[in-house]
Amino acid sequence: MKKLIAITSLTAALLASGAAQADWRGNWLLGVEGGYNWYDGTFNHTIDVDSPINPPPASFHHELDSKGWLWGLLGGYQVRCAEWLFGAEVNVDWNQHHHTQNYSETVDFTTDIGVSTTARFKRDTTVGLTARVGYEVLPCFIPYLRAGVEYARDKFHLTAQDSDGDATFNGEASHHAYRFVGGIGAEAPIPYLAGLTFRAEYNYHPSKTVSVEGPWDFQIVNSSANAKQHINTVKAAVVYNFTI
Known about the structure:
- It is a single chain.
- The protein is mostly beta strands.
- It has a single domain (27-243), classed as Porin (Beta Barrel), CATH 2.40.160.
- It has one helix at 2-18; strands spanning 25-49, 58-63, 66-81, 84-96, 100-109, 111-123, 126-135, 142-162, 168-189, 196-205, 209-215, 221-241.
- An 8-stranded antiparallel beta barrel has the order 1-3-4-7-8-9-10-12.
- The longest helix has 17 residues, at 2-18.
């Protein structure tokens, strides 16, 4: 990931210096964006009872899907050479996501014991550094590809309680990670508003694993769980292009 950050930073520097050439036109840009995230993933939960009876651990596999809004800011530099566009950008996105899902599980311990489980996955503020390459296929209409790296903290919260309410588990873990982000989009000027453009874009964010484990308040019972979610994002942005 450090190599990717270095390459993207070098690209931005080269773009800024290259814009001084006669056949290159460059400009700084600043924008606001909003979008919607689809969180698709799973989590695994294992309940282990440490007792003289020593039953085998009970393992469960669940879907963990949810959705949420985002909004953010972006800034960067881009150059045009004929129909080609090359750019480097930094973005900061705030994710509104607080969805909790409920599950029912059964543990075989001399008799079947019901367990009610709740799980929640949340992604904190995301910071990205990406490069953008586009081509003007029609006058004032530029499809483009995006690739780069982003940094975020993922949180996974798990609670569990037996059917009698005698024992409970409450655990939370977080994971700081760099991950690849890639996408495709299109940009066009906003009529009658000089310097303003509109973008529509799709991004894909691969999954990372977040794990939580620990004892229940009934000490002979332990839980361990891990969650993975990849995220699909659609965005819309309004960007102001500064003239030089």
